[in-house]
Amino acid sequence: MFENWDFPRVLPVGAILFDLLFILMAISIEAYCFNSRLNFDKKTSIFYAISINLFSSVIGWVVFFLIQPVLPIQLKSELINFVFFNSLKSSNTQSLVILAAFIIFFGTFIVKVLLLRGFTFLLNENLGKKSEDNTPNQERQKWRYLSRNKFISNRLVSTMLIANSLSYSAITLVLLFRMK
Asked: Do the beta carbons of residue 160 and residue 56 sit within 8 Å?
């Protein structure tokens, strides 16, 4: 499997460094949103932001490397030209870039919401505790908990949408400054 494996001759160091910058920007913006809107403490907010952004970045790169081989030759050359030289040659490629940006935004949003829900579910400290017996008072508390859980779930999604929008806006600004 790895007998013909070799290091690449050209490394896109600029793209790697910009991806690291974008991840750091997204972590700080999203951690602030989690802290202020979901009332997590700072340590928990930073932990969730780091985990979500690293996992979604890895998932994004895996999807990119799975899709890249099936792209047409013209699109591959435009992609390589953009990664290494920061320019697009064809004018019709710009519309594809805008479409891809929307798809990437909403795909990342869905992945981050699923990851945040999964992490909050897995790290819930009441997860392993059993309730002893159900009295009418406990039934009311259960319904309150379920309605509160639904409210938190809606708040989680809206907070993730705001955090993702803010981080993508900041990344877009950096890309616009990079182009000039």
From this structure: no
